[in-house]
Design goal:
TPR-like_helical_dom_sf; RNA binding; 36 helices; two-stranded antiparallel ribbon; 619 residues; PPR_rpt; E_motif; mainly alpha
Length: 619
């Protein structure tokens, strides 16, 4: 006689079930023995496993097979829709539930939050209060993660204090610390931390990371030292937060110490720590150390490769960044939106027909062409290469346009001298898009400079704060000064310069010297040149303008004095160069006769010149 397996034995099998095939076999036995109808626990376990191992249809059928459904059955059923992002069906299940527990409420609140419907989540949270069911610590931690203002967070904090759950739960305390630091209220975060009945490593991590993000880098490092003194062992997240703090203040010495500690603790191979170390060394102007960390790693992932690519592009080592990108592809590391955005932002330095368009094809292949960050980078790349039509096609095809996308296109038109297109796009933004910001207005003023629309530019400048809510900055004043200088209004330009909070900048200095430095008022030339030397001590331009101005007036002693200062300070002219990309970059310096491969280049030039002469293109 064969004995039927007991429910406890089947429960053990379900607990160790790791494949869909095994689950189907066990579930078939449950149905055969009618246990799905009589044992709700086993039926719920099957439903839970179907939601993880099977398809949606399998899970829905398993739910329908449960005769005596309880609140756990309904919670699992609702979670299935939340996991696939179908929040509408999840809410319908929630509304149809015969009874709800705190897990039911937490699940739907979390579902709304994870799908970007914070307002709906807050409404459900408010409804939970009126339902008579008290929120638990997990409920509060979910809600605190997406509050939109510190005032709302404080209201929830007060509610927690009245219900006695503010400081007794580590989870809630950590959520409060994170919330206050997110809005820059570090003092309140410390208040929560000091009043918590129990703290853990996550509490320290939240405080250290919060101090770092709020700009209190030294405070973050001090809290890390306090954490060590009180006997808490830092984890990978702690180390990465402190490394980020060191990079923020560019403290290479402390960064090296923390990185040495991470190696001692065995975190070197951790991608979070190694990525933070690569970024830290890069921001501390020690990119060679970043490369060393990257090369020493046994295993690469997308986070580590992104950090290395970003570090190289930030130091204008673009060919090396492309090399790392190719290596990551060879190791089957899928690039992210951040990877492609970093490379595209620098691709305009290469030939767009080569690297730029290849990256664009790769973007389409990976399905990132609709991503707003990647699309904005593509717009910027094509615009910098002068291909505004290609940039506009990408812009028009974007579904959701954020302000960065609008700004990229406006700046692209402006920098390519397309004044009319820039102003038309700006009018469209004002009517249908998000409110303009400082960058937007910089693009509009730049377009007015190119189009010599000084009256329109001044109109935009004087109305930008009242009409668009954008406070003028030095960049905007610089644009207006440039307009006036181009129109010959030097006196008005000098009066406008006095409104700049940080004083005249190097760009305006060079602009004045290039337009009026040699033949204009000598006293003004000397003052502007002196200012430029203070801003850029190694600038060759200021000295040479002074030399030319003195030579025109026959002041040879002054010429000799300036040249002596240049010699003493080792001021040299930067040799001009141009480049062309054919299977790599070939750089041609000014007046260079001998060049690697130069014979072939000059032979080709001679042939071209001969063809031009034959076609009578030279008068």
């Amino acid at each position: 006689m064969v004995c039927s397996p007991r429910p406890t034995f089947i429960s053990t099998l379900l607990n160790h079930c790791l494949s869909f095939k095994s689950l189907k076999l066990i579930h078939a036995h449950l149905i055969k023995l009618s246990l799905c109808n009589t044992n709700t626990y086993l039926a719920n376990r099957s439903l839970d496993l179907y939601s993880k191992l099977g398809t949606i249809n399998d899970a829905l059928l398993a739910f329908d097979d449960i005769r005596h459904k309880n609140v756990f059955s309904w919670n699992i059923y609702m979670r299935i829709f939340i996991d696939i992002g179908d929040i509408n069906n999840a809410r319908q299940v929630f509304d149809e539930m015969p009874e709800r527990d705190v897990v039911s409420w937490n699940s739907i609140i979390s579902g709304y939050c994870s799908n970007g419907f914070g307002c709906h989540a807050l409404r459900v949270f408010a409804k939970m209060h009126t339902s008579g069911l008290m929120p638990n610590g997990h409920t509060y931690s979910i809600v605190l993660s997406f509050v939109k203002s510190v005032c709302h967070g404080m209201e929830i904090h007060c509610s927690m204090i009245t219900k006695g759950v503010a400081f007794c739960s580590v989870i809630v305390g950590n959520s409060l610390i994170d919330m206050y630091c997110r809005f820059g209220f570090v003092e309140y975060a410390f208040g929560v931390f000091l009043n918590m009945e129990e703290i853990d490593v996550i509490s320290w991590n939240s405080l250290i990371a919060g101090c770092s993000k709020c700009g209190h880098k030294e405070m973050a490092f001090n809290q890390f030292c306090m954490m060590r003194r009180t006997g808490y062992l830092p984890d990978a997240f702690t180390i990465s937060s402190v490394l980020t703090a060191c990079s923020g203040v560019q403290d290479l010495a402390k960064g090296r110490q923390i990185f040495s500690l991470s190696i001692k603790l065995g975190f070197f191979s951790n991608s979070i720590v190694s990525s933070a170390a690569i970024n830290m060394f890069s921001k501390c102007e020690s990119v060679q150390d970043s490369v060393s960390v990257f090369v020493e790693l046994d295993v690469w992932d997308s986070a580590v490769c992104n950090s290395m690519i970003s570090s190289l592009t930030n130091h204008q080592l673009d060919e090396n960044a492309m090399w790392v990108f190719v290596l990551s592809l060879e190791k089957d590391i899928k690039p992210t939106e951040f990877t492609l955005s970093c490379l595209l932002s620098r691709a305009s330095l290469f030939l767009p027909a080569v690297q730029g368009t290849e990256l664009h094809c790769f973007v389409v292949k990976l399905g990132f062409e609709r991503d707003p960050v990647v699309s904005s980078s593509l717009i910027e790349m094509y615009s910098k290469c002068g291909l505004c039509d290609a940039a506009k096609i990408i812009f028009d095809q974007m579904g959701m346009k954020d302000l960065i996308s609008w700004n990229s296109m406006i700046l692209g038109f402006a920098y390519n001298g397309k004044t009319e297109e820039t102003l038309q796009l700006f009018e469209e933004l004002v009517k249908t898009g998000p409110p303009p910001d400082e960058v937007t207005m910089s693009g509009v003023l730049s377009a007015c400079i190119h189009g010599r629309l000084i009256d329109k530019g001044l109109s935009f400048f004087h109305s930008m704060e009242n009409e668009y809510g954008v406070k003028p900055t030095d960049t905007h004043v610089t644009s207006i000064v440039e307009m006036m200088i181009h129109e010959g209004e030097v006196n008005k330009a000098m009066k406008m310069i006095t409104t700049m909070p940080n004083g005249i900048n190097s760009y305006v200095c060079k602009l004045i010297l290039s337009c009026y430095g040699i033949q204009g008022d000598l006293e003004l030339t000397e003052k502007v040149a002196e200012r430029l030397v203070k801003l850029e001590p190694k600038s060759w331009f200021a000295y040479m303008v002074l030399v030319k101005a003195y030579e025109m007036r026959g002041r040879w002693e002054s010429v000799a004095r300036v040249k002596k200062v240049m010699k003493d300070r080792n001021i040299r002219n930067v040799v001009g160069c141009s480049w062309i990309g054919v299977d790599g970059l070939f750089v041609f310096k000014e007046n260079e006769i001998v060049h690697h491969g130069g014979e072939d280049v000059y032979s080709a030039l001679r042939l071209l010149m001969q063809d031009i002469e034959d076609e009578d293109y030279i008068c």
